[in-house]
Design goal:
The complex is a heterodimer of chains A (639) and B (257). In chain A, β7 and β8 form a beta hairpin. The longest helix of chain A is centred in the C-terminal third of the chain and has 25 residues. Chain A has 639 residues and is of the alpha+beta class. Chain A contains 17 helices and 19 strands. Among the domains of chain A are: 137 residues, Succinate dehydrogenase/fumarate reductase flavoprotein, catalytic domain (Flavocytochrome C3, Chain A, domain 1), CATH 3.90.700.10; 120 residues, Fumarate reductase/succinate dehydrogenase flavoprotein-like, C-terminal domain (Methane Monooxygenase Hydroxylase, Chain G, domain 1). By secondary structure, chain B is of the alpha+beta class. Chain B has two domains: 112 residues, Ubiquitin-like (UB roll) (Roll); 129 residues, Alpha-helical ferredoxin (Fumarate Reductase Iron-sulfur Protein, Chain B, domain 2), CATH 1.10.1060. The longest helix of chain B is centred in the last third of the chain and has 16 residues. The termini of chain B are far apart. Classes of the chains: A alpha+beta (639), B alpha+beta (257). Chains A and B meet through α3, α5, α6, α11 and α12 of A and α1, α2 and α3 of B.
Chain lengths: 639, 257
């Protein structure tokens, strides 16, 4: 497998402009002759669908939800970064580029990250023009707030519902194209396979989730914008239906999977409280603008928080990272919370939590201002826990939130399968080993509004594409294979539910492939996952029928894929013998417990090629070396 | 891991079961045993479903996804109230500590002509997407936008627009309405965009087309009871409807297309 990033030559700040000029164009009359499939309607998929249809392409958009507006981007809370420098505090494209490279612990491709920073101001302009109601100052200009890993205020927000407002903007733009006929929308469709003709992506096979039928869709190019795979851990902040099936089936057809072990564990989530729990809920990072993280200095201190005086509290982020304090980046803040719990200083009934305290902010600003900033988050916290965070500190703990890894893509966002493009969280491209807060929304919209509309034209104009329709043999073969897999699962009639298996996989992943990883633990995880996978194919029980709506069957297909992906994540973590960003190997740390990178041997992207046989997983590991010409490789410090 | 609150309760559920769109449907009594009070309503449904599967029975179909009250997927009428008894709360954010041991809970789908049942508690709400497609947007192609600060918007207006824009499109307003009207949903979008200068060029066309599509989709008319707003998990204000009526009147007089 050859990994050619196709990075344009020239100085970093000129690469994208130069590339935009050099790319081939499709003339307006020819655009309508091309059909492009988009899978997923989150920020990346909806913005790509809308924009490509505006340009004149025929867009066929599929989503698994009953409405495209339900995609999980809707749940993003805190904000979206952009190098506008409206606050006059020294921000610039170069600084956003620098912060993102450093925040990702030098494991992202410089050229892609710089393009992201360049595009970021256009995203805000576009969203405002659509009527996205961002927070504003009394003078009518846009407000900003700070986020982790940055010392400037560049985050635009709409109370604690920024993802919702941005997604509704993109959804509306797409629905306008549905009305105009440019986008053909198919909802409640789950993509089960990518169809290749002569090695080129020419369509997808989708299951109609209402009728159970397998449907074929043919096109000139396929775009996956299907989000991340954090649900491999069972408990995560992801929505229940978020899954890896589309990218995993693409991987099995030849798309390399890059850096699968790079998982973001978000520091501020409502802690796990019992076995019945189905998911974990995020409390936005923006809360760390005003909330202070602490634990009691004495292990096992049983006093309620308000009775613990200040000099007996350890505000550990402020102590360890005086310059960034509570706004240390996510990987760092999560690890510090884990250290405190491991020291026996955790709080609450389970002792697996730390405090996030607003006492001082309320004293300084008053309850009204705190409520204006975070009211909906405080309400959500109270609904879930029954505690009032205006009166008692929140109890929080890290949880799986985002996956930086994903399908490998080149500068044009094309995977190792020609014609298959991957956007947003589903690709690996911009966040390295750790994503900064408020950068996921930026990337999803950059890819969809401003990158793919250019690069797709370049692909279509430069590729011979013989006519292919859904009667082609490749579609028939893929359909038979997928139908066989469904029949096999339905026939098992075992004794354990899909959720049982999913929870068991989640426990293995969290214990061994979670916040802290070791050689011994990862080897054990690989064995345990393989064992669990064979049990799954003997003992899973799926009730209901295959020819009508059947949520259990949907879950079973997703969990079957997670059972392979989990193994690959453990293998990738095992091979990456260094610590970087969210990937923390206990064997590789500095004397003060910070991640210890090994730039000599691991300054690269690991891209895994699927080489399994039926019933047996196997992969080949390839590398794309990373070179840092514009940001000096340095030890990342937030002290 | 130890539970934060180990209290558990038992409940008697009366759940609407309907195999297909065409099936007549009926209530089925199902017991929910040993439900932790810290569980959410949907987690209670998960527990019940896992038991039904193990007993070889068909689990209860329901829509859900984010379980954070923002995606708008969950759609159950609980003891007569869309999303249950707690104000400003979607079903996924309703917790079992709001119920008592041995309580009977009636669970039904959102019922409306425009929302046909697909199975059990899962309904088809694509009519809402059609209403948005009819005009719930600002027509601005990607790449056309001026600098974001070039057009100042007073904070009060931005906040007003935001309050309407928080609608999650769940359809509780329709389920709560005696006429199955979608006026709260439509008016929230109309006002979100009518308040902002960006929405100005299309304000008349927008309200006329969206209202027409609402009518064509089989939703009823508004009789001003305010039940929609009370049932809304985002507490979208009833005032939106009055403001939209004014918009609609103005637009009807000015344009007759």
């Amino acid at each position: 497998m050859k990994l050619d990033a196709k990075t344009p030559s020239g100085p970093i700040a000129e690469k994208w402009s130069k590339h935009k000029f050099e790319m081939k164009l499709v003339n307006p009359a020819n655009k309508r002759k091309h059909t492009v499939i988009v899978v997923g309607t989150g920020l990346a998929g909806a913005s790509a669908s809308a924009t490509m249809a505006e340009l004149g392409y025929n867009v066929v958009t599929l989503c698994m939800h009953e409405s495209p507006r339900r995609a999980h981007s809707i749940a993003a809370q805190g904000g979206i970064n952009a190098a506008k420098n409206y606050q006059n505090d020294g921000d610039s494209v170069h600084r956003l580029f620098y912060d993102t490279i450093k925040g990702g612990d030098f494991r992202a491709r410089e050229s892609n990250v710089h393009r992201l920073a360049e595009i970021s101001p256009n995203i805000i302009d576009q969203c405002v023009a659509q009527g996205v109601p961002f927070a504003r100052e009394y003078g009518g200009t846009l407000s900003n707030r700070s986020f982790g890993g940055a010392q400037v205020s560049r985050t635009f927000y709409a109370r604690g519902q920024t993802g919702q407002q941005l997604l509704i903007g993109a959804y509306q733009a797409m629905m306008r194209q549905v009305d105009a006929g440019g986008v053909k929308l198919f909802t409640r469709r789950e993509v089960m396979d990518i169809v290749l003709v002569d090695g080129v992506a020419r369509g997808v096979l989708a299951r109609n989730l209402v009728t159970g039928e397998l449907e074929s869709y043919a096109a000139d190019a396929v775009i996956l914008a299907t989000g991340g795979y954090g649900n491999v851990f069972f408990h995560s902040t992801n929505a229940k239906m978020s899954n890896a099936t589309a990218i995993w089936r693409a991987h099995r057809r030849g798309a390399a999977f890059a850096n699968p072990c790079f998982t973001q564990i978000h520091p501020t989530c409502i802690p796990h409280s019992g076995d019945y729990q189905s998911k974990l809920t995020l409390m936005s990072e923006s809360l760390r603008n005003d909330g202070r993280c602490w634990v009691p200095k004495t292990p096992g201190d049983q006093r309620p928080p308000e009775q613990i005086p200040d000099d007996e509290r350890d505000y550990y982020l402020e102590r360890v990272y005086p310059s960034f304090g509570n706004l240390a980046p996510r990987d760092v803040a999560s690890r510090q919370a884990k250290f405190r719990v491991d020291e026996g200083r955790g709080v609450g009934p389970t002792k697996v939590a730390v405090y996030l305290d607003f006492r001082d902010a309320i004293k300084r600003l008053g309850e009204k201002i705190v409520s204006e900033r975070y009211g909906n988050l405080f309400d959500m916290y109270e609904k879930i826990t029954g505690d009032n965070p205006y009166k008692v500190p929140m109890r929080i703990y890290p949880a799986v939130h985002y996956t930086m890894g994903g399908l490998w893509v080149d500068y044009n966002l094309m995977s190792t399968i020609p014609g298959l493009h991957v956007l947003g969280e589903a690709n690996f491209s911009d966040h390295g080993a750790n994503r900064l807060g408020a950068s996921a929304l930026m990337q999803g919209l950059a890819d969809g509004y401003f990158v793919i509309p250019y690069t797709i034209g370049h692909y279509l104009a430069g590729t011979p594409l013989p006519k292919v329709d859904t009667q082609h043999e490749a579609f028939r073969a893929a359909r038979a294979e997928i139908q066989g897999g469904i029949d096999r699962l339905m026939a098992l009639k075992g004794s354990r539910t899909v959720d049982d298996f999913h929870r068991a996989l989640g426990t293995i992943m969290w214990d061994q492939v979670g916040m802290s990883r070791t050689d011994v633990g990862l080897k054990k995880a690989i064995q345990d996952i393989q064992k669990l996978r064979s049990e799954f194919y003997e003992d899973v029980r799926i009730s209901g029928e295959k020819s009508y709506i059947n949520p259990e069957l949907e879950k079973a297909g997703r969990v079957a894929d997670f059972l392979e992906l989990g193994e690959l994540m453990a293998r990738d973590a095992l091979e990456r013998k260094e610590s970087c960003g969210g990937h923390f190997r206990e064997e590789y740390q500095t004397p003060d417990n910070e991640a210890l990178r090994d730039d000599e041997n691991f300054c690269h992207v690991a891209a895994w090629e699927y080489a399994g046989q039926p019933g047996r997983t196997n992969w080949n590991r390839h590398i794309e070396p990373l070179s840092f010409e514009n940001v000096k490789l340095a030890t990342r410090s937030y002290k | 891991m130890a539970s934060a609150n180990s209290k558990k309760i038992n409940l008697k559920l009366k759940v609407w079961r309907q195999k297909t769109r065409e099936d007549a449907g009926r209530f089925e009594e199902i017991s929910a045993q040993e439900i932790p009070v810290d569980a959410s309503f949907l987690e209670m449904m998960d527990i019940v479903n896992n038991r039904l599967i193990k007993e070889g029975r068909d689990p209860i179909a329901f829509d859900h996804d984010c379980r954070e009250g923002i995606c708008g997927s969950c759609s159950m009428v609980i003891n007569g109230n869309p999303h249950g008894p707690e104000r400003g709360t979607a079903t996924c954010q309703l917790h079992m500590r709001k119920f008592h041991d041995a309580q009977e809970i009636v669970v039904e789908p959102f019922r409306a002509t425009a929302f046909p049942v697909i199975k059990d508690l899962s309904v088809d709400r694509t009519a809402f997407d059609r209403i948005i497609a009819a005009g719930g947007y600002v027509s601005v192609n990607t790449g056309n936008a001026p600098d974001a600060n070039a057009l100042p918007v007073p904070k009060e207006k931005a906040d007003d627009a935001f309050n309407s824009a928080t609608c999650i499109g769940c359809g509780a307003c329709v389920a709560a309405c005696a006429n199955s009207s979608a006026m709260l949903f439509v008016s929230a979008k109309v006002n979100h965009l009518a308040v902002l200068p960006q929405g100005e060029p299309e304000r008349e066309r927008r309200v006329l087309r969206m209202m027409q599509t609402m009518e064509d989709s089989g939703f009823g008319n508004c009789s001003n009871t305010g039940a929609c707003s009370l049932a809304c998990p985002k507490e979208i204000s009833f005032e939106n409807i009055a403001r939209m009526n004014a918009e609609y009147m103005k637009a009807s007089i000015k344009r007759r297309d």
